[in-house]
Amino acid sequence: MVVVGAARSGIAAAELLARRGAMVTLTDLRDAIDAGPALRAAGVAIELGGHRPDTLAAADLVVLSPGVPPDQPALDAVRRRGAPIIGELELAWRWIRGRVIAVTGTKGKSTTTTLVGRMLDAAGRPVLVGGNIGVPLCAQVDQSTPDTVHVVEVSSFQLETTTSFRPWIAVWLNFSDDHLDRHPSLEAYAAAKARIFASQTSDDWAVVNADDPVVMARSRGIAARRVAFAPSGGIDDGFVVDGEWIVRRTATGAHRLVPVAAVELTGRHMLHNVLAATAAASLAGCAPEAMTRALGGFRGLPHVMEPAGEIGGVRFVNDSKATNVEAARRSIESFPAGVVAIVGGRFKGGDLAALRAPLAAAGRAVVAIGEAAPLVRRALGGVVPIVDAGSMRDAVARGYEAAAPDGVVLLAPACASFDWFRDYEERGNAFKSEVRRLREQVRR
Q: How far is Cα 117 from Cα 101, in angstroms, rounded to an integer?
């Protein structure tokens, strides 16, 4: 068996297969990987520096890491032989013993997944959280019991290589342009997302955003029981925010679940994530009291609308995980005025002009960074002043100058990080580090 890609998920898949007695080869384009000694000790053969055609062609099963495109030419020989090509998520599904709650969407997956896990834990349910965040599902297999609930964030990259993956509760939060550097079209991206429902039956649940036309269209006619949530409140049957409460509306009335006052997250879109999490946890049998307790003290995840400090009257907010245009738009809309947005990186597709309206309403300036800086200038010129920055240090300093004396410097890149950084986490940490450095400089 061959595992392609030695990132987190690929390593977990290789280790799982080796523990189950398979002869495993792990192949990667890089010339070196940190996990090499541990993998060899587990009995995994490692091939680096490229994917060898003869190794792939001889495989009985090929497992792809999420970052590996399934249509690459190196896999043609595998397809010609008829050997299965699946992803790490599909592999794990075939061995786990517990139920799965899966969360997908263009924006909000990590926060919603984390909240569902917290709610189940507060209700006393045995729960493991992971997938596209934290621990890969393959690394949870050995801990899985019939009573375990696995709450997993699933990306389009993971879903496109599934064949039998069947969540008990599938949540589709929203859909907008993203990952068009990987998927050949918006249609293909939507089709990959919709695979979250493909293997469900009438015993399962599909939690869908009634305000999103793509989500509603793609979930029409599925086998699972479809339950809607609506951030706008515009449905008579489903989960909504009604005044000061998150409620479930049914034919018998509005049943109160969670007080809005219990939510400690910044940003209107964060309340949408809480609404979706409440819907999923409620269907899973969590009591309202447990869901409310789970929200206590939860102020969000690192790099998701994360407060990064204050200098004088200027606040700094790290939303490095806003790697697409829709996510950046929601970030900017979270503030009433004075926003200096740091935008740019490696462009993944979408329409940066969608940021014009929120910047016109709340923006003070834009700091353009990375490979996409020329695109940022063209798309947003004339709305607010735009300045260029050649490094994160420069971006923070220029953002502070533009935001003084009372604004918000918001890292909302709308792009991937791979031009300057390894990932969005490294980018967010660099932003926070530069804020700390600037604070010390201003004090002197």
A: 9
Q: Are the C-beta atoms of residues 377 and 369 closer than 8 Å to each other?
A: no
The structural domains of the chain, ordered by start, are 2-83 (3.40.50.720), 90-295 (3.40.1190.10), 306-443 (3.90.190.20)
The closest of 36, 17, 16 to 28, measured between CA atoms, is 36
Whether residue 285 contacts residue 123, with contact meaning beta carbons closer than 8 Å, is answered with yes
Q: Is 143 helix (H, G, I), strand (E, B) or coil?
A: helix
CA distance 232 to 215: 15
Radius of gyration of the chain (CA): 22
Task: Compute the distance between CA of residue 409 and CA of residue 31 in angstroms, rounded to an integer.
Answer: 39
Cα gap 87→105, rounded to integer Å: 19
Does residue 246 contact residue 257 with C-beta atoms inside 8 Å? Answer: yes
Q: Which of 51, 179, 303, 432 does the annotation list as catalytic? A: 179
The 10s digit of each residue's pLDDT in 14-52 is 999 999 999 999 999 999 999 999 999 999 999 999 999
Q: Any catalytic annotation for residue 132?
A: yes
Catalytic-residue membership of 109: yes
- How much is the mean pLDDT over the chain? 96
Q: Tell me the CA distances in angstroms from 230 to 210, 216, 220, 271, 322, one per residue in order.
A: 5, 11, 16, 11, 22
Q: Is 179 a catalytic residue?
A: yes
The CA distances from residue 402 to 74, 175, 363, 387, 395, in Å, are 49, 33, 11, 9, 10
- Predicted local distance difference test score (pLDDT) of residue 72: 84
Catalytic residue among 51, 107, 132, 318: 132
